[in-house]
Write a structure and sequence with these properties.
About 45% of the residues lie in helices and about 25% in strands. The chain is of the alpha+beta class and about 120 residues long. Strand 3 and strand 4 form a beta hairpin. The radius of gyration is 17 Å and the shape is globular.
């Protein structure tokens, strides 16, 4: 049985409503804040990623990082972590931290729509 045209339109409208849109002025302001953050923390890089895995913006040393792939993987990681939280009876885990030998990564949810990612040594 195929979907009715009205149902498809309703679903499309819902997707448009849920999609997070950043305007150039907002990205410029975010970049200023990220730059200040990097200066004060000496982190290597920081990214803002939407929950769908799209890179919104990045600052710092990112030349050696595939930021597009990292963004998609972080969104997937956060989605699976959300399910882990539910299994454990938590509403959500709003932060993730991964520690490596030389680099570490901190991820924090921002208002259920995006994440800030910090790469540091």
């Amino acid at each position: 049985m195929s979907e009715t045209p009205k149902k498809r339109i309703d679903e499309n409208e819902m997707l448009r409503y849920q999609r997070l849109i950043f305007y150039s002025e907002e990205v410029e302001k975010i970049n200023e804040l990220l730059s200040d953050f990097l200066d004060s923390t000496q982190a290597k890089a920081t990214l803002v990623v939407d929950i769908e895995g799209h890179l919104v913006t990045k600052m710092g040393y990112t030349k050696s990082i595939d930021t597009e792939s990292l963004s998609a993987l972080i969104a997937g990681s956060f989605a699976s972590t959300k399910q882990v939280a539910k299994i454990l009876g938590e509403e959500e885990f709003s932060e993730i931290f991964h520690q490596g030998k030389t680099d570490s990564i901190y991820i924090s949810l921002i208002r259920d729509r995006s994440m800030v990612v910090v790469v540091f040594d």
